[in-house]
Design a protein that fits this description.
This protein is of the alpha/beta class. The protein has helices at 48-53, 55-60, 115-127, 140-152, 166-174, 186-200, 212-217, 219-227, 244-258, 278-282, 308-317, 327-341, 347-361, 400-407, and strands at residues 6-9, 15-16, 42-45, 85-91, 94-104, 132-136, 155-161, 178-182, 203-204, 235-239, 267-273, 321-325, 370-375. Helices cover 36% and strands 17% of the residues. It has a six-stranded mixed sheet, with helices on both faces. It has a four-stranded parallel sheet with strand order 8-7-6-9, sandwiched between helices. A three-stranded antiparallel sheet has the order 2-1-3. Strand 1 (6-9) and strand 2 form a beta hairpin. Helix 4 (140-152) packs parallel to helix 5 (166-174). The chain binds zinc ion. Zinc ion is lined by residues 9, 11-12, 14, 25, 27-28, 40. Zinc ion binds at residues 9, 11-12, 14, 25, 27-28, 40.
Length: 408
């Protein structure tokens, strides 16, 4: 093997040498259409047989053998990943029988989980001499790529649906990226960015289309492995939109399994918004059907899940579980989470927490269970969606009497 890693087609199993021009499997992607998820998404694979023999060294080297880069200096200076894992034994004043762990990925440089993917993509572009990176995004991936590129001296071009949340659009502009609002939805922005990639020779960060996005996201599994003292959690609740984060979580654990560091894959619970549940709804179906929908959790509002087939195969193979939560449950969960923990998460992240609350209510989380909720982004990025539960009180006269009136 000349390269540290290879790219293997998740559909036909054919293996390719990586290059910045290779995205989907050329064979399997031939019949891809714009109205269904793409076939031929590639997965990075490593020399697992060798790594199995030296797996303790892999841990000591902080899993660098499983990262698709040549040198660490290609990565941005910004601290990406290594986010805190907080443990809780109470929810809303009640003691809970299980151990709840919150992985707070709003602590990334641009305040979302997406930085894990952007960092790897940006570093890979740097190693291959590509200076311009393009992405279509509902907001988080775009603001993430813009921030990471700013730190690396690269040019970022971000195509976003024009209705993306203001804070995310503002971030993109402040990071100095070229922002192109599209009069259309995410899927249209996605297709246009791919056309532009072929036309101008840019590097493309679109999730799943670029296989290294999954490699970036898998790092969360390595961190959980260390933070949980090498235990595999009983449940991991993951917010799901296009299926890349959940595939990343599975891929990380799959790598650990292949090199003999763990003996099973954790139970992953895929949580989607009831208003936009195209991934969950299509699992096991013969033909993919899209139900266009809406949810306040904009970053998981997806008509065509770009990594549907890989996510589906991981969920089916590992007996993963799925559930949907309503927007009302998401907003409530967001409030419970923030007021109980001090973590103000965006609606997509609150959806995962809502999923955990639903399992808790239905008594599926038992004594001593280790339960992880992946909190993927900051609530400050989307203030509008919680505005329905937030009422700011009126100003009072600056007197003790008026103060006593409002606090007693
Ligand atoms: Zn293929």
């Amino acid at each position: 093997m000349g390269s540290k890693f290879m790219l293997t087609c998740s559909d036909c199993g054919k293996t390719f040498s990586p290059s910045p021009e290779l995205y989907l499997c050329p064979q399997c992607s031939k019949t891809n259409s714009k109205s269904a998820p793409p076939h031929g998404v590639l997965k990075a694979t490593y020399d697992y047989n060798t790594l199995l023999k030296i797996n303790e060294d892999v841990v000591r080297r902080n899993f660098w053998d499983l990262i698709p880069l040549n040198t660490e200096s290609s990565l941005p200076q910004l601290r990406v990943g290594n986010t805190p894992l907080y443990k809780y034994n109470r929810i809303g004043g009640n003691t809970i029988p299980f151990n709840l762990y919150l992985k707070d990925d709003s602590q990334n440089p641009t305040f979302s989980f997406k930085d894990r993917a952007s960092a790897i993509v940006s570093a890979y572009a740097k190693e291959n001499g590509v200076t311009t990176i393009v992405a279509a995004s509902t907001g988080n991936a775009g603001s993430s790529l813009a921030g990471i590129c700013a730190s690396q001296g690269q040019r970022a071009i971000i195509l976003v649906p024009k209705n993306a949340p203001q804070a995310k659009l503002t971030q993109i502009v402040m990071y100095g990226a070229t922002i192109v609002p599209i009069d259309g939805n995410y899927d249209m922005a996605f297709d246009l960015s791919i056309e532009a990639t072929q036309e101008f020779g840019w590097y493309n960060r679109n999730t799943a289309f670029n296989p290294l996005t999954i490699e970036g996201k898998k790092s969360v599994a390595f961190e959980l492995y260390i933070q949980l003292n090498r235990d595999v959690p009983d449940y991991i609740f993951v917010p799901v939109g296009d299926g890349v984060i959940i595939s990343g979580v599975y891929k990380g654990y799959e790598d650990l399994l292949k090199i003999g560091l763990i003996d099973h894959i954790p139970k992953v619970v895929a949580v989607q918004a009831a208003g936009s549940s195209n991934l969950i709804d299509n699992i096991g179906k013969k033909d993919f059907t899209v139900m266009p929908g809406q949810t306040i959790a904009d970053s998981i509002s997806v008509d065509i899940p770009r990594n549907f087939y890989m996510a589906q195969s991981y969920i089916l193979q590992n007996k993963g579980e799925c559930l949907t939560v309503t927007d009302e449950e998401i907003i409530n969960a967001s409030k419970i989470l923030a007021s109980n923990t001090g973590i103000f998460a965006e609606p997509a992240a609150a959806a995962a927490y809502a999923g955990m609350l639903s399992y808790y209510k239905n008594q599926k989380l038992l004594e001593k269970h280790k339960v992880v909720v992946l909190l993927t982004g900051s609530g400050l990025k989307d203030l509008k969606s919680v505005s329905s539960v937030v009422t700011l009180p009126k100003a009072i006269e600056p007197t003790m009497k008026a103060l006593i009136n409002v606090i007693m």
